[in-house]
Amino acid sequence: MARGENQEAQTGNVPAAAPGPKPASAGAGKGAEGQSVVRRLQSELMALMMGGDPGVSAFPEGDNIFNWVGTIAGSAGTAYEGTSYRLALAFTAEYPYKPPKVRFDTPCFHPNVDAHGNICLDILQDKWSSAYDVRTILLSIQSLLGEPNNDSPLNTQAAALWANQEEFRKMVEKLYKPAA
Amino acid sequence: MGHSDAASPAPAPAARDARKKRGNRTAAKLKQSKLETRRGQWLNNSGQGNDGKDAKVAATPTGARSNAGSPILASPHPPLPRRRVDSRSRGSDPEDREEAGATGLEIGGSDLDSPMHSPGSDKSQGSGCGAQRKGFSGNGHGPSPSSGSSVWSSSRSVSDAEEDTGCPEDENEVLDDWEAAADALYDDDSHCHHSSVPTTPPPAPTTAPPANAAGPETIRSKARAWAPDDKFRPQSLPSISKQASFPASIGNSWAGMGMTAAQQGILSLPVSCPICYEDLDPTDSSFLPCPCGFHLCLFCHKRILEADGRCPGCRKQYNTASAVEEGGGGAKETTVGTGRQMANIAPVRLFRSCSMGPRY
Fold first, then answer.
1. Which long-range contacts (CB under 8 A, 24 or more apart) does A25-28 make?
2. Annotated active-site positions of A, please?
3. Is residue B57 over pLDDT 80?
4. Which of A122, B28, B192, B201 has a 20 to 30 A CA-CA distance from A21?
5. What pLDDT band is residue B285 in, cutting at 50, 70 and 90?
6. Considering CB atoms only, which of A47, A96, A129 is closest to B315?
7. Residue A84 host element (H or E)
8. What residues of A are in contact with residue B274 (Cβ under 8 Å)?
9. Does residue B159 have a pLDDT over 80?
10. How many CB atoms lie within 10 A of CB B338?
11. In angstroms, what separates the C-alpha of A124 from chain B's closest C-alpha?
């Protein structure tokens, strides 16, 4: 899968998504803890594959279950309708007590997403709960697309343009570069 | 049919046994033909009507039920040569054999009833046994309580031994063993009822060697005796409940999001921790650290307390939440209190935590 390899190389270059030593090895250092994280991630993966949520999917990237690639589809009736975004999720050995690092891989024109794909979403930071999982994260980001928080924008241009949905839609389409 | 003395495990007269056996076989044939349609019917009835009848039957002072039960189980008692012929003819077809066993069981279980209600296959045997057990427990107040219970247990051992027989060549041996096993179990049960650690069976007054007699019995107690929270249960055994509950637990953890879900958490108890996905043991299940009703295991709770200390279900601080709800009792105190309450389960917890490695 050329796509997957490409993806891996990409995330490898971004320190935010993939911290130098692979999280897997960090988990291995902690033994049982890393094991329980792996178990939880495997359970989530199985649930995601069985659940079949429309517009949301995720799968581990390569052999490393600590790095996932997620896909969300823009909800109908929003400026993102018809688009599909890939995200990189990097879990630590402290998951689910600590949130994973989530980043847009596909460029996304959105008030709460910066040029590097970083997402400003409360549940990925201070409002994180260990009861969240990959599925709820992706669903939250999907709904964030249609309902941005324009009070604390990372992309001020997008925040300013939000009021004009027609123009906003044009910008979304212009900057949208779907993954190969 | 077969109202022989349950208390005396002596062989029944051969003539009557032969008749009975023939009856069994024809009954089995009949049963096979109507099995599929009846099974549903029986399953429906077994819930209400059958149980009621069983209870009634069990209440009769004659202890007819236990008597009815014994001949089947005692059917290996009859003259062995003839039995061997039977077994050889059946031996080729394991299903047939199984069915014959089920039929035997059923005759014991329901000949006072309508035969329609009997379990025809070993699939429904579980519920059949349940009904039987009910009858016997009721019978326990009858004139011969010990015989009743012993018959029950021996019946189980026999049916199990039958299931355990792998190849037809072993059939004869096992048939011989039935008697010994039943006797051994009889003695065993009168001393210690269903001890999970198999003791050496007392010498059985039969031709079968005691070692053989111990064989099937040991297997059966090992195969079935482990309760999920048994502290003697080997950790290597797969947890069926875990596997079966897996999707449900996932669903629960999904539903566990947000406030509405917190309430759902009360209504439908999750079987595994929504945080770490480990099974919840009884201590964990009764552990409600937050008034929002969000369930989680003690390990995860402790870990969250060491971090920000907020309930994953409602994001409120555990300390304040439980302080408001339980009148000053901190979350940590709650934990300890719960642990002490469930002191009898403590060994289980310890065992579990050991098996999971150094998590804390």
1. A26/A92, A26/A93, A27/A66, A27/A92, A27/A93
2. 120
3. no
4. A122
5. confident
6. A129
7. strand A84-90
8. 131
9. no
10. 16
11. 14
Q: Most distant CA pair in chain A: distance in Å?
A: 53
Query: What predicted TM-score, i.e. pTM, was given to this entire model?
Result: 0.43
Q: How many CB atoms lie within 10 A of CB B49?
A: 14
Amino acid at site B234 = P
Quick check: B307 and A97 CB within 8 A? yes
pLDDT of residue B277: 87
The pLDDT tens digits of the residues spanning A81-139 come to 999 999 999 999 999 999 999 999 999 999 999 999 999 999 999 889 999 999 999 99
What is the Rg, in whole angstroms, of the alpha carbon atoms belonging to chain A?
16
Tokens of B4: 């022989």
Burial zone of A51 (CB within 10 Å; 0-12 exposed, 13-18 middle, 19+ buried): middle
Domains of chain B, earliest start first: 2-233 (no CATH), 269-358 (3.30.40)
Residue pair B74/B157 in contact by the 8 Å Cβ criterion? no
In a mutagenesis test of the B interface, which of A130, A132, A139 is the best target, namely the one with the most B β-carbons within 10 Å?
Answer: A130
pLDDT for residue B213 is more than 50:
no
CA gap A112, A104 in Å, rounded? 11
**Residues on chain A touching B264 (C-beta within 8 angstroms):** none
pLDDT of residue A177: 87
Chain B nearest CA to A135, separation (Å): 9
Q: Please, what is the Cα angle at B192 between B186 and B196, to 5 degrees?
A: 100
Cis peptide before A96 (omega within 30 of 0): yes
* Residue B269 banded pLDDT, cuts 50, 70, 90: low
The amino acid sitting at B67 is: N
How many Cβ contacts (< 8 angstroms) between chains A and B? 58
Q: Is the pLDDT of residue B39 over 80?
A: no
B215 residue type, one letter: G
What distance in Å separates residue A66's CA from the closest CA in chain B? 15
